[in-house]
Amino acid sequence: MVDTSLWKRDEKSQASGTRTKFWLKVLNQLQVGDSIEFALDPENVHDHRAVEVHTQSGDKLGFIPAFYSGWMFEIIAKNCSYEAKVEAIHPLAVDHRKVSISIVGEVNRSVDIQEVLEDKDELRVIMY
Fold it and tell me: Which of helix, strand or coil describes residue 12?
């Protein structure tokens, strides 16, 4: 259920690839409502549309799960307007489920939603 002209829904995503002691220190400093920033990582050997997740101070939390990364990669690459915040923190969850992120924004006309959704290579199911 994606509106092909506007993206005004909440996308809930968990940061994945988060398994270091440094990350646990960063996690302890996070608070619900904190702003989150993203960075494209097209050179990533596991996912050419990888999107890094960073705190507002620049600390790397991990990556957007591959299931969502193709979508977010396009949103960021096409300079769409969005806001990302920490929605929930689950300290006892497995690493890739510890941080829930809420993303709200709009898709501009240069994003071909159908192309993103039909990219079967990128829409991989993540097992939790």
Answer: strand
Which CATH number is 11-118's, of 2.40.30.10, 3.30.70.2330, 3.90.550.10, 3.40.190.10? 3.30.70.2330
> Cα separation of 84 and 103, whole Å?
4
Which residue, among 76, 22, 83, has the nearest Cα to 56 in the 3D structure? 83
Please tell me the pTM assigned to this model: 0.69
For residues 61 and 70, give the distance between their C-alpha atoms in angstroms, rounded to a whole number.
18
Query: According to the model, what pLDDT value does residue 127 have?
Result: 34
Structure tokens at 90: 């689950």
Which residue in this structure is represented by tokens 């769409």?
Answer: 80
CA 109 to centroid of chain Cα atoms:
21
DSSP 67: H
Instruction: Give the tokens for residue 53.
Output: 């997740």
